[in-house]
Amino acid sequence: MNWKLADQVAAKALAEGSLMPIATEAEQIEEQGVRYLGHLVTENAGKKLLNLTAKHTSNPFLPYEKSMYVCEAGEHHVCLLNKFPVISPHLLICSKDFVPQESPLSWEDWHAWLGGFTHSDVLGFYNSGPLAGASQSHRHMQLVRSDIPLEKVISGGKLPFVHWLYLVEAMTTDELYDAYLKGLKALSLYNETGNACKPHNILLTERWLLILPRTVNNVQGLFANGINYSGRFLVKQPEQLVWLQEYGLMRFLRECSE
Questions:
Q1: Contact indicator for 84, 22 with CB cutoff of 8 Å
Q2: Which of 207, 113, 112 is nearest to 166 (CA)?
Q3: What's the pLDDT tens digit per position in 116-143?
Q4: How far, in Å, CA of 251 to CA of 86, rounded?
Q5: Which of 13, 1, 211 minimizes the C-alpha distance to 114?
Q6: Residue closest to 82 by CA, chosen among 151, 144, 171, 159
Q7: Per its UniProt record, what InterPro entries does this chain match (predicted)?
Q8: What is the pLDDT of residues 46-73, one digit of tens each?
Q9: 93, 79 contact by CB (below 8 A)
Q10: Which of 12, 26, 74, 133 has the most beta carbons within 10 angstroms of its beta carbon?
């Protein structure tokens, strides 16, 4: 995956008005030695809501918006920009044909996704179903280049809730796909009868793979998807950042996954 090309496509789309970033620059929130990142939404967030409402019964990836196209991602996938990014460029690796987001990832999905890990700061995440924060039902894996405030906590196996951690050795499709299947089994996330998975998030770097079950998608109206488990939050009002500090950021993550 060519991140330089992604930057160029994102800059062009932003200049044309088709790319609509939805967040301010992050501010740091410190808790127990971790410097979490908190963003406030911009007015573009309202446009995202209207966009989601308008496309409630349709598929935004079939067909996709041409200005969001970055490149092909193998035979079965395409790489698109997220039209409403918190971090830009924010890439989506989408299946060319419809595949339910709740169904297990295939070897081909992993192969296409891993093509984006060409820099050490790339973070991949996946939201399996609405309870895990998925806003679209069409198969899509996500990629950003990002700081990971919870990196040491994650890689040290110190997250205080149920999860499955794998330390990456070679970053090959076979290795990661096999590790993923073991993680699904260890967490009892896969329902073979229905060919669907229970709600969960996946976080991936070139150093580790994290899988965690989800039980709710919000606490007191503040929603969480996979990127939150890297230590990054998006809120609608400044008061919500204050509330998070008082409530506890790790407590919030724990209650979304237990």
A1: yes
A2: 207
A3: 999 999 999 999 999 999 999 999 999 9
A4: 23
A5: 1
A6: 144
A7: Ap4A_phos1/2, Ap4A_phos1/2-like, Ap4A_phos1/2_N, ATP_adenylylTrfase_C, HIT-like_sf
A8: 555 445 545 455 789 999 999 999 999 9
A9: yes
A10: 133
